[in-house]
Amino acid sequence: MYGSGYGAPQGYGAPQGYPPQQGYGGAQQGFAVYGQRYTMAPPNVDPNIAVWFQQVDTNRSGFIDSRELANALSYGGWVPFSIEATTAMIKMYNTNGTGQLNLVEFQHLVTYLNTMRHNFFLVDTDRSGRLDYNEICRVLQQSGYFFDQRLLPKILSKFDRQKVGTIGLDSYIELCLFMSSTKEIFQAQDYQRTGMISMGYDQFLNACLALQYGFN
């Protein structure tokens, strides 16, 4: 089940108190996925996720953009995410360069976000709702990111927008998306898996573009 099993607040990761499916048009309206119409959620999609998606896909296009995603997550009981954060999420999970998510991509994102929130609260031992420098170091290492810790203040300065020395859940997820992107770009060039790469300027420029605009 999405939004349960991690000790999270009720409704986390899914809309609180879904109306029954027919409240959103039910079988007659159906779901739009990859431009096709379905009378029910596809078999590889959680029906609750499908109902949630349809609720925020107000124009029934079968896709949601960064603002619709922000609304979806707020409706689902998450902390409010900035448009920058939801744009970063879409960059990571959109596979065709449209800048929007379809239903299947949205489900993948929800699964990822639930995992990230679980990790966040495992490390947030004082239950402050924010992670300090030491907590961030620990959670990144637990997630398999090992690098010169002298770089961490520079990395955090990008996500600690309030400049208070801590980050909340939304900024933490942005940080994880950034780290995941850098790791994916690096590993694409690390053919021998040595942890070292040699890049020409074209490769470097392409990596910069991937970080800025996504992988498409």
UniProtKB/TrEMBL annotation:
- Domain EF-hand, residue spans: 44-79, 111-146
- The name of this protein is Peflin
What SMART domains does the annotation carry? EFh (SM00054)
**Keywords assigned:** Calcium, Cytoplasm, Metal-binding, Repeat
Q: Which terms does the record give in the GO molecular function aspect?
A: calcium ion binding; calcium-dependent protein binding
Annotated organism of origin: Acrasis kona
Q: Which GO terms describe its cellular component?
A: cytoplasm
Q: Which Gene3D superfamilies match?
A: EF-hand
Give the UniProt subcellular location, in the record's own words. Cytoplasm
Q: According to the lineage, what is the superkingdom?
A: Eukaryota
